[in-house]
Amino acid sequence: MDFIEKLDALMPDYLTDENKNRLREGLRQFTNESIISKNYTDFYSTTQYDFFLQGDLIRQLRFPVFDFKKGNYSKKYFDALVVSNTCDIDKNNNQKIPKEVLLAKAIPLDEYILDLKKINVEKIDEKIIQIKKQFYSNLLYLPPTKNSKEYIVLLDDICQISRQELNNLMDDIPNNRIDVLDHFGYYLFVFKLSYHLCRLPEEHYRN
Q: Could you list the pLDDT tens digit for every one of the 207 residues in the chain?
């Protein structure tokens, strides 16, 4: 992909040349299928913000879960990645039309593997390697976080909560937020999300 060569136009001006090169080389790994083991160094930020950002991994947010047998929804709690823009979830942003907060469900990798075994998925080890290489457009792999867990973010399992509901958690951000994406992690998330949702133009006519 040549988007790596054009990345400078998308980088914040305040990044040093060293940071830009590290970000560029980190993303370049995912354009080369021959690289088996990906390097996720500098994936998370060492800065602790006192507000929520797009791409934050937050613990135990509510999701509607549909029961196909009963035909109804129940409320369950999952760790989740914030999909909405940072400015849209800012409690001080006085929007003329209020916006809801979009969340993508995040499943610990070990639990995801157990789920694959329950439905008798073949070649699980091979699939996990592919997931860690960001092979699947609907799955974002997150390397070990501060709680030492690896996660699979389901970009096709998204729900919404109110901005107020999210910002109520700001009173105890250190306990409610699992981790914060640094530039490398954030840009990879944005690229994966864009590729999953927007692939135009396609060469195939779908009838």
A: 455 555 565 666 656 666 666 666 666 666 656 555 677 888 999 988 999 999 999 999 999 998 888 889 899 999 999 999 998 888 888 877 778 999 999 999 999 999 988 888 888 999 998 899 888 889 999 999 998 999 999 999 999 999 989 989 999 999 999 999 998 898 889 888 887 887 655 555 555
Sign of CA pseudo-dihedral 89, 94, 95, 98: positive
CB-side exposure of 67: number of CA atoms within 13 Å? 8
| Closest to 105 (Cα-Cα) out of 56, 157, 148 | 157
